[in-house]
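Below is one such record:
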Amino acid sequence: MRQNDMWQPVVLELRRSLFSEEMVCSMSSQLFHIPETKDLKGNAEMHESLVPASYHRVTASGSAHRLVNGEQQMSIVQTLISCIQNAQEKDRDVRNGLNIMRDAAPASYKPFIENIIRWQDNAERHLQNAKQYTMQITGTNAWQNSQPTY
């Protein structure tokens, strides 16, 4: 195995997390365009965290791709770590917003929002998997104090 191949599981898990995040974004944004849910409590606030969570996933994924492709700068690894941590932090607020939305939704839309929550579960699970694979590669010391928020 080439040394940069060790990053492949991280890339795969981030890709899966991003796909799930795409579904969360698409479905929750759709609610803004349905008359019964256009002003659904929690949706606008949830998007305030969903947008940066998505940004951090995209940045983490790009960093992991660069590592697979042979780049080796420690600053890329630090960016990857920081973005995984920042995405997980934003995910907590996304989940809170989704729970508010589910509770406030008309009964006919609750199953739809529960489906969004399942996609969010997937996004979080795959991000956690990416974190675990990254920790196996970097060790836990690299994760200390490496979370600049941006």
About this structure: Residues 3-138 form a domain with the Four Helix Bundle (Hemerythrin (Met), subunit A) fold (CATH 1.20.120.230).
